[in-house]
Amino acid sequence: MPKVKDQNKVNAIYKATIELVTKTGFSGLKMAEVAKKSGVATGTLYVYYISKEQLINDVFVVTKKEVAGAIINSKYVKGSFNKTFKAMWYGYFKYCLLNPEKMLFVEQFIYSGYITEANIIKTNTYFEPLNQFLIEGQKNDYVKKMDVALIKAHLQGAIHEIVKMVVREGLKLKKKDMNTCFTMAWDSITE
Amino acid sequence: MPKVKDQNKVNAIYKATIELVTKTGFSGLKMAEVAKKSGVATGTLYVYYISKEQLINDVFVVTKKEVAGAIINSKYVKGSFNKTFKAMWYGYFKYCLLNPEKMLFVEQFIYSGYITEANIIKTNTYFEPLNQFLIEGQKNDYVKKMDVALIKAHLQGAIHEIVKMVVREGLKLKKKDMNTCFTMAWDSITE
Amino acid sequence: MPKVKDQNKVNAIYKATIELVTKTGFSGLKMAEVAKKSGVATGTLYVYYISKEQLINDVFVVTKKEVAGAIINSKYVKGSFNKTFKAMWYGYFKYCLLNPEKMLFVEQFIYSGYITEANIIKTNTYFEPLNQFLIEGQKNDYVKKMDVALIKAHLQGAIHEIVKMVVREGLKLKKKDMNTCFTMAWDSITE
Amino acid sequence: MPKVKDQNKVNAIYKATIELVTKTGFSGLKMAEVAKKSGVATGTLYVYYISKEQLINDVFVVTKKEVAGAIINSKYVKGSFNKTFKAMWYGYFKYCLLNPEKMLFVEQFIYSGYITEANIIKTNTYFEPLNQFLIEGQKNDYVKKMDVALIKAHLQGAIHEIVKMVVREGLKLKKKDMNTCFTMAWDSITE
DNA sequence: AATGAATGAGATTTCATTCAT
DNA sequence: CATGAATGAAATCTCATTCAT
After folding, report:
1. Which bases on strand E have an atom closer than 7 Å to a protein beta carbon?
2. Domain boundaries, given as residue ranges, for chain B
3. CA C123, CA B182: separation in Å to the nearest integer?
4. Is D154 within 8 Å of C145 when comparing Cβ atoms?
5. With an 8 Å Cβ cutoff, is A96 touching chain B?
6. Tens digits of per-residue pLDDT, D18-68?
7. Which of A90, A178, D92, D169 is deepest in the core (most CB within 10 A)?
8. Which residues does chain C have within 8 Å of residue D104's beta carbon, measured at their own beta carbons?
9. Distances (CA, A) of B51 to A109, B33, B57, B116
10. pLDDT of res. C75
11. What's the pLDDT band for D2 if we cut at 50, 70, 90?
12. CA separation for the pair C61, C38 (Å, rounded)
């Protein structure tokens, strides 16, 4: 949580943190390197964040919010279930393909021991509209009857793993493959 | 006749490492704690593993092998596609539910910066039989036509995420839910 | 404006290193003790030198340069061969008597396994002018005809051994003895 | 000081110790390596020597005795001063050329902090006959009048330094050069 | 506020020595 | 006596954090 304002610095630190974690793995994330990469002094880092834990938590929350925004986009919520689901699924899938480092960041750190329980709970609320949307889908017999948390987990897990694989192997997904991926998702959740 | 190298110690170290990572997150994995928990002196750790990195890589490879063994089980390979797939899926799903710490361990460390590229490649080969099984399924028009790596990713990602959620929230999956989870998996990959 | 790197610290570290090696023998040189004696934190040592090896190499090179400076002193190079030689010999002899710890340091560490080959070569060049002076002396038939490296070795070895003995036994060299020592040196190299 | 008898082991340990110090410098001398190189277990080392310090001191004393033997050889003591001196000088010079690792060992360790004062004093007595010989030479006006310790230091220092140089540079001393070296030694000490 | 040198607690690793076999 | 696995005190080095400028 920044104490002061230079938004350029905040952005630079945020960017550097995400990039370093993606590059060196998060066990190698050093404050000195974050400082260097973001072009500020180590001391300055502590003007903006009181500790490494704070920095990581902050980056985590900000990123998680952005991730949620990629799925939950008000302009879609008025369409049919299928159309809306498709929009959400593609929204998230493409976001992950474009920002794998952010996707990885939140995935990695959630079990790292760095993120506070409070922040995990807090960021989960960002996905509440998605829950509502799926519950609505169940009421209308579109969606398999089961705890929506499990359904979300199924969808998210599948997307993440596919994207990680694509990124790791340096693949280029064709439109056809992406459509098949979507069909897998759709088939899995619908009755 | 000197003391002889002790497999019990290796096992104790392995167990301690997995448990500590699961408990404290692996940014908090300390050699001193591994030593303490496994009941050996710190120096002894270095009799068996030349460095922390080596220890983690070793635990990673051993665990990944065990994980692969949970899926690929020769007694199933003679059944129908559906039966075999079901056996594999349940085999893996239940393994993950019973050993979430091992599942987490391999998932976490793969992006930690600790695991060498060579070990990542090596452990991937353990899953080759699964690839073959899915390719066979595609030939017989059971399975959607797409790079099997993507299909595997979809299946694995979904399972992992569900299990992580179940563990995190302390849920107890009912038989019915587990069946629904399986149906999701089956529906997603079949044509 | 941040704190600025402090030459006083470098000097203090240098001094502490030499003194500790002289006092405890260098098998007992510990970074913690160097830090303590030079009045800095252990971490600070690593701000200035990336490792113990680096520290020792640095102290070695600096000292060797100073040692060379004790012999090769431009104000003498214009005199007769005898006068110049005498000036150099006394210059070095007295330097060693006054700074036996520095003489010992370079002598000890050269075979310690700590000094890199590059630094050994580098520091040898500091003595080039002495080579030239002796070669000149040979051309004018003052000096015995032989590889000047051997002549230098003879002179230096004799001085070092004498000084070591003097220091070890706590002797006080009388003027007469010093003159005899010089005569030994002079007689040994002249035709 | 061996507790027991297997002389082969004692010899192997002695040889390994000297060789390792010559190769890796003595700051890198490790008991485990001595054990390995001499073909015994680490535990066995401690059957023969109660500590590393003991081992090194023992090797030191044994070697120093051998070194003294190379100089002081009863068959020469009856000749003229010149002949005897020449025999001694060549005896020592050639010994050093043939066994530089032993010469280095004693030279290195004397200031390492490992050798006890008692052993330094003890080994000095081995050279007593040389002292007597030089004193006799002074009485007969062959040798410059000065503390014989200084004369010995001068001679020994010169020899050591020359040999070190020869070994370091991989030179091959010609007979003529060796004679010049002797002449330097002779000229330096005679009146 | 910004800097980066300085700090020192704490981590990893080493290695002389011990001890069970 | 011989072995080498086991030990743990102590060494080196790291790095999040502080602080003088």
Report:
1. 1-21
2. 1-48, 64-189
3. 74
4. no
5. no
6. 999 888 877 789 999 999 999 999 999 999 999 999 999 999 999 999 999
7. D92
8. 111
9. 24, 14, 10, 13
10. 62
11. very low
12. 19
Dump pLDDT digits (tens) for D113-159: 889 999 999 999 999 999 999 999 999 999 999 999 999 999 999 99
pLDDT for res D3? 46
Cβ within 8 Å, pair D27-C112: yes
CA dihedral D21→D25→D31→D32, nearest 10 degrees, is -100
Across the interface, of D111, D144, D162, the residue whose CB is closest to C180 is: D144
**Contact, B113 CB vs strand F, < 7 Å:** no
Residue range B64-189, CATH number: 1.10.357.10
Q: What homologous superfamily does CATH list for B1-48?
A: Homeodomain-like (1.10.10.60)
Contacts of B101 (CB under 8 A, 6+ apart): B18, B19, B21, B22
φ, ψ (nearest 5 deg) of residue A52: -65, -40
- Give tens-digit pLDDT for B43-102: 999 999 999 999 999 999 999 999 999 998 766 667 899 999 999 999 999 999 999 999
Flag if D27 and C187 touch (Cβ within 8 Å): no
D43 touches strand E (CB under 7 A): yes
B143-147 contacts at long range (C-beta below 8 A, 24 or more positions apart): B143/B189, B143/B190, B143/B191, B144/A180, B144/A183, B144/A184, B144/B189, B144/B190, B144/B191, B145/A180, B145/B191, B146/A177, B146/A180, B146/A181, B147/A171, B147/A177
Considering only residues A157 and B75, tell me which one the structure prediction assigns the higher pLDDT: A157
- In three-state secondary structure terms, C128 is helix
Under the banding of pLDDT at 50, 70 and 90, the label for residue C173 is very high
- Asked whether residue C56's C-beta has any atom of DNA/RNA strand F within 7 A, the reply is no
Nucleotide closest to D46 measured between CA and C1': E17
| Nucleotides of strand F within 7 Å of the protein's CB atoms | 1-21
**A30 CA → F16 C1’, Å:** 8
Q: Is B170 left (phi over 0), alpha (psi -120 to 50) or beta?
A: left
Which of B28, B144, B164 lies closest to A184 in CB terms?
A: B144
Q: What is the pLDDT of residue D191?
A: 86
**Using a CB-CB distance cutoff of 8 angstroms, which residues of chain D are in contact with residue C151?**
184
Residue C189: list chain D partners with CB under 8 A. Answer: 184
Measure the CA–CA gap between B171 and B185, rounded to whole angstroms. 20
Report whether pLDDT(B116) > 60. yes
Q: Which CATH superfamily is domain A1-50 in?
A: Homeodomain-like (1.10.10.60)
Chain C residues 157-186 within an 8 A CB cutoff of chain D? 157-162, 164-166, 169, 171, 177, 180-181, 183-185
Q: Which DSSP helix (H) or strand (E) runs through A138?
A: helix A128-139
Architecture of domain D65-189: Orthogonal Bundle (1.10)
Nearest CA of chain C to the CA of D167: how many Å? Answer: 12
d(CA A158, CA A164): 10
Query: Does the distance separating the beta carbons of C27 and D112 come in below 8 Å?
Result: yes
The alpha carbon dihedral of A106, A110, A112, A115 has a sign of positive
Tokens of D33: 């390596």
Q: Which nucleotide is nearest to A29 (CA to C1')?
A: F15
- Identical topology for domains A1-50 and A60-189: no
The hierarchical CATH code for the domain C60-189 is 1.10.357.10
